[in-house]
Structures are given as C-alpha cells and as structure tokens.
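Figure caption, in words: inputs first, then the predicted bound structure.
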Amino acid sequence: MSSPEEKVVRSDAEWRSLLSPEQYRVLREKGTERPYTGPLTTHHETGNYHCAGCGALLFLSGAKFDSGCGWPSFMIPADAQAVDEHEDLSFGMRRIEVTCARCGGHLGHVFPDGPRPTGLRYCINSASLTFTKAER
Ligand code: FE
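Bound structure (fe (iii) ion present):
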C-alpha cells in the first residue's frame, strides 16, 4: 500500500477500464449521482469509506450522519490530508469541491451547514466510495 502522499496518476484509458461507467462519470468527469440513488446514502455499518478510484481511506463511519440531502454525508474526513478542497464556480453557484488527495478523483462538495462540532457537511457521491466493514 502506498503512503497517502504518493499520488496515483493514470491515463484516461486506464481509468475507463478500471471504473464502472458511473464511477468514471463522477470521479473523472465531476458528475453527480441523482440524490437518494447511491447505495451508501443510508448505509450505517461500522467501517471505513475508501476512494473508489485509488483505495485511499477518506471517511470513517463515525463521522457519517443523516443529512437528508440524498447523498452520503460526513462531518469530517478521516484525515485532513486525505482530501483536497477547491473553489467551484460551475452552474452559477459558489461551492467547495472535494477531491481525493491521492488520485484527484471528484468526490463531491463540502457545505457549511453540518452538525456540531465541525459545522461541515461533506456531501459525497456513493459512486466515489467503496465501503469496508470494520473487523470485530
Ligand atoms: Fe482516490
């Protein structure tokens, strides 16, 4: 397993062969899955959420909450270094895009309307994530 600092760089053809069409559309083309359709939106098992592109650990189940927005929502990433945040002015809105720090894959957006203590809602596409159940 590579360290989080090591970037994963693949060609477009490699990403297309590795990802499902929906994963490719979201991760590599900054797509958004339709709300309430992602399998991890109402998923409550204890475990870890990894990047569907490169496997990096992104979010822990303890930070997941029911936002009612239709996408998996987290109060904080597993590690501050795990994700990158960028201003996104597309669609006439000012939003903060969240990407995987290791592979650059699009994950979703972060909004300042989450619960305490962070006050943040990381609104993340299911298609960008894979879940691994905690041992125990
Ligand atoms: Fe990644």
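Helices lie at 12-18, 21-27.
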